[in-house]
User: What shape does this take?
Amino acid sequence: MRLKNIPTNERAVRIGMCIFGNLFIGAGVAAFKFSLLGNDPFDGMNMALSDLFNIYYPLLQVIVNICFFLIQIALGRDLIGLGTVINAVFLGFIVDFCAKIMDFIADTPGSMVLRIIIMLIGLILTGLGLSLYQSSDLGVAPYDALAIIMDRKIKKLPYFFARIICDAGCAAVCFFAGGIIGLGTIASAFGFGPVISFFNKTLSDKLLKKDSRNP
Assistant: This one.
């Protein structure tokens, strides 16, 4: 959705949802990383490549996003918006900042129970962030746009399978680059959907409906 097409009373709410959504996503991804149980395939891939090539993680994230963004410009320009830029440019820095805070205030979790608890916190935070970010409808992240474009351009390839192909590819790169593929990876694959749906119903949809009722 273009900002100019959004009513003035709704614009600030959607921008706020987009910004805070990415803040929550960043904190959630950092929690996944801190748990040492694996991240979602895309972030896990970027973290693994960052370590492999000794490139600052936020910078590598931007580079990878630029590559996908070029595809988005060529084949899915309608998917680009303010949210695309915020996610592509700033999310890696948010993750890095939150990860450094966690490393500063706490030691690496030793017990599996504590790691699972931290991972679940990451799942909730990321799901909350994705709900706010996606509901703001201000553009699609370059990586997320890839599966949508594949669904549009490749006949008989539903979005579900296109997303699986993208995530499986990232997971494979993560594995061969020496990254962690574990319980956190599985939790992100099967857990985001229900968590996002919960926050859509309990928070994101209500924020937008409340705004639309108040001119």
Q: What stands out?
A: Helices lie at 8-35, 41-53, 57-75, 82-105, 112-136, 142-153, 159-176, 183-213. The radius of gyration is 17 Å.
